Amino acid sequence: MIVAERRYGNNQRRSKASGQEIFFDYTLLFIVLFLLAFGLVMLYSASSYDASLHYDGDSTYFLKRQAISTVMGLAAMIVVANIPYHFWERFAAMGCIVSIVLICLVMTPLGYEANGARRWLRIFGFSIQPAEVAKLAIILFLASLICKMGRKTRSWKGFCIVLAVPALIAVLVWRITENMSSAIIIFGIAVLMLYVSSPDYKRFIILGLAGAAVCVIAVFVIIKINETQSASAVGVRGARILAWLDPEAYASGKGFQTLQALYAIGSGGILGKGLGQSKQKLGFMPEAQNDMIFSIICEELGLFGAISILLMFLLLIWRFMVIANNASDLFGALLVVGVMGHIAIQVILNVAVVTNTIPNTGISLPFISYGGSSVMFLLAEIGLVLSVGRGIRLKDL
Fold it and tell me: What residues form DSSP beta bridges with 2?
């Protein structure tokens, strides 16, 4: 009898060579495939009108591009899942260096602007967002670094050393690509990975309180500047904060997208208007297929559909926790925690932006929003998690 069978269900298969049960999380795989399929359906629903207007009547323009990226991502996931995860440890430092170089290349002719932001590179005909490379690189690098430093991470010096590299990359992403949301995610991943490997939680409380204090002070300063000077004096970030506090006052500017999202959520009700029946996507909602796709889900599928998708993400996080808790070593556990942090933080930020809980930062919903680089690197990270899961051995008693 397998002792762990009640715990893992059918997520295992027998190794012919050793007679051991090899853990493979089919539940995790099913959840990811479901989210991908659901994402393609909602992407077509949200983007078909806009695509028909701007791409010679081709309503499937965005769908086809996302489907190609999804297939490539699934191929990468399969390859990564079948490679022992320790293989990637030797490339951890190199990954960080490459990500920094790619971020800096955005300022060169290789970088190009889309939707008012210069965040992408075009290399050999392929478009890539360096911030997505940086997220995966920082997960690998910190997992390796924390394992090598061991107990040294428990001191303030070690704590600062571990956070130094992700802080640098986060600042570069923020300043060069003007992508604050990705910068927050990168630093958030680092804090979470360090948190789960450290028994001392006091410094994290201090860090959290300091961050909250900085945010409160920044909001207060922006409000005072707006009261004493012109609205343009607060800058783009400040304008977003002002629009967050009072979106109706900025309905023709920074608050427009947020208001349209709230209208979509409110009009969806409990059960929604029905798949494909959204009104906001018909030219009212900017970037409906990108950052605001959750509002289209709420409008078409209602509160029931929105909660169902959030529950799927919660199940995904739960499967990550199961694999991390049973990983064969700390390196594998930290890899899974890093991926879990990436997806969890991104989902929380996206939903918070759409519901106007936080200022608009422009963050996509994992596996569902349009974005080739995002879905490919997310699936590569899922491959890492599956690889760690394959390292779990369930012994017969």
Answer: 396
pLDDT per residue over 108-128, tens digit each? 888 777 766 777 788 766 788
Convert the pLDDT of each residue in 241-290 to its tens digit. 888 888 888 887 788 888 888 999 998 889 889 888 888 888 788 878 88
CA distance 210 to 212: 5
* Residue whose C-alpha is closest to residue 137's, from 80, 96, 192: 96
Asked if 212 and 225 count as a contact pair (C-beta separation under 8 A), the reply is: no
R_g over Cα of the chain: 22
Taking a C-beta distance cutoff of 8 angstroms, is the pair 386, 29 a contact? yes
Bridge partners of residue 191, in order along the sequence: none
State the pTM of this model. Answer: 0.90
Q: What is the 3-state secondary structure (H, E, C) of 109-177?
A: CCEEEECCEEEEEEECCEEECHHHHHHHHHHHHHHHHHHHHHHHHHCHHHHHHHHHHHHHHHHHHHHHC
**Residues in a beta bridge with 141:** none
Per DSSP, the three-state class of 397 is coil
Alpha helix positions (H), the chain = 5-8, 26-54, 61-81, 92-105, 130-149, 156-176, 180-196, 202-228, 235-245, 256-268, 293-325, 330-354, 372-390
What is the domain partition of the chain in residue ranges? 21-394
SS3 category, 30? helix
| Longest Cα separation, the chain | 75
- Vertex 93, ends 88 and 95: CA angle to 5°? 70
What lies within 8 Å, CB to CB, of 134 at 6+ separation is: 99, 100, 102, 103, 169, 173, 182, 186
Q: How far is CA 310 from the centre of its chain?
A: 14
Tally of residues, the chain:
397
Handedness of CA 301, 59, 368, 248 (dihedral sign): negative
Q: For 176-201, give the secondary structure using H, E and C.
A: HCCCHHHHHHHHHHHHHHHHHCCCCC
